[in-house]
Amino acid sequence: FVGITGWPDRKPQAPWGAYTDFISPRYALAALGAALHHRDRTGEGQCIDLSQIEASIHFLAPALLDHAHNGRTPGPAGMASDWGCPHGVFATNGIERYVAVEARDAAHWASLCSVIPDLAKLDRKTGGMADIATRQSSKAAIESALGSWCASRDAFEAAETLREAGVPAYPALRARDFHADPQLVAREFFVELEHDELPPMLYDGAVTTFSRTPSAPTHAGPTIGQHTFEVMTGILGYSEEEVADLAAAGALT
Fold this sequence. Notes:
Layout: H1 24-42, H2 52-56, H3 61-70, E1 87-91, E2 98-102, H4 106-115, H5 117-125, H6 132-137, H7 139-151, H8 155-165, E3 169-171, H9 182-186, E4 190-193, E5 201-204, H10 228-234, H11 240-248
Antiparallel strand pairs: 1-2, 2-3, 4-5
Helix pairs in contact: 4-5
């Protein structure tokens, strides 16, 4: 992941944790659920061996197949894409505000041209750029025109204008923007929960919602040692007296 992320003329850049840290717990939970189901049916336990890279390697499937079949080893490509042009994040009005835009097919490109006059002129000048190969050959000119259009506009307004025209676009959100994001608000993604040591806070809810299965978190994370007694008596089988002796000996601090 690090080797193919970043700019061609710079050092590789790690893509934060989205492709390993965030996905592997979902696979681990599925494996744990399957192991518990197997235990309940057969009485047999399971040993779960799950690595983060194995849980996330499918994200690199096209690059792996290209290497295996064609012998090509990809490198960092910045924001360039084999499937979209333009494809990238463009600066808008304001400090460190950006909008992500992609035109993947002819319909996206036509919609983009309908919003940005300079792109429409460029399209006419070149005899039409409905196919991506033609757009890739004029990538610098396209990005320059799109960048100029974005530069004088608010990121959220620019993204909404483009989306209404049929162009995939969205502002690059800051952490504080997520709580007011219309899509996340509509899906009731964030859940406010009480915590024993902290003020009430908003927590991430479930990414997937189910029609009949509750999927939202019901309580905040525990404090250190909060459930020690319950675990030792209810799961590990210690008696209350044994737990008291261990506590008195300092083994639980």
